[in-house]
User: What shape does this take?
Amino acid sequence: MRVVITGGGGFLGRQLCKRLLGVGELTLADGSRSAIQEITLFDRSFDSGALDSIWSHFQSPHHSLPSVRCVSGSIEEESSVQAALGKDSNLSVFHLASMVSGECEDQFDEAWRVNVLGMRLLLDTLCKVGGNPKVVFSSSIACFGGELPAPCDDRTKHTPQTTYGMTKVIGELMINDYSRKGYIDGRSARLPTVIIRPGKPNTAASSWASGMFREPLKQEVCLLPVDWDQPHPMTGYRTVIDSLIALHEVPQAVLGHDRAIGLPARCVTPRMAKEALQRFAAETGVVLGEIQESPDARIQSIVRQWPKQVDGARGIAIGLPDAPSLSEIIHDYIDDFGNQALP
Ligand SMILES: NC(=O)c1ccc[n+]([C@@H]2O[C@H](COP(=O)([O-])OP(=O)(O)OC[C@H]3O[C@@H](n4cnc5c(N)ncnc54)[C@H](O)[C@@H]3O)[C@@H](O)[C@H]2O)c1
Assistant: This one.
């Protein structure tokens, strides 16, 4: 079988690719197990070292692993989407390509074109390929907004207060309806904020959630745009990747009519992050950079509309992993990104 990862040049797309190379096989919609022969990463563009960073993870010879190809193009362009999906129906798609929250808030029309119309183009092109392929879509807790119960769960009404959240709600509904019609076998994973993202801050309104770990570990100053006690649901990237794969494997009968599953998350505040980092520093002797308050009214107004706590019991009941501790997340990050994570 083939696997296509849209947004395959991004943070989670690359991690997913590495994990799938290790896993080696998946379950098709008809229930049969199939070896992964090829993984296609589809993205607007790729860093020059994108493939090297994936292969550097493996010591075994590459010829024993699935092949990986990169297809550059926009999800808004039919020819690019066709090139990424190919013609053979023996495939699964992980749809991760998306504009992030800050971008969507600033670029309303572009958010519609990429996150909504691009996703529809992807699904319609998949329908033409045929074979009722499995599709795993990365949604977000930004689907929730405004006056919310604590915690939110899969029955909480979707009243997003951002354009990004609105596009993710539409994505979840498309996955449900294309699946109901029998065009695809879709699933949506509703992701909390994923930590710790390596590299530079991005334009997501939740960028501080990774920054408050990443910058101090590099002995750099972190400017914190939200309050020290702002609660926010978070989980580790390794767990998210395991969850996307586990959700792909769940038999569709288990999912029922609502195929959008909230991933379990921890409720984390910047104060809790600082304490976890201090424990890590005490264990390892790492010297930490400072976290400095730098209130940002725009970021605060977006983050305050998001849920503070989510209940992932439905996900756990169908076999998805629980959220790890902050200590595990920090150790995983150092293990995976040690050479760039520390000074
Ligand atoms: N990281 C998080 O905290 C988080 C939380 C909730 C949901 N999600 C969702 O998970 C998915 C992956 O997130 P990530 O953290 O890897 O983000 P990312 O920004 O690193 O990756 C997204 C990728 O999508 C690509 N993309 C954007 N527009 C495109 C277009 N028009 N055509 C093709 N590709 C395009 C980008 O170039 C990028 O590489 C996204 O759908 C995101 O909304 C992430």
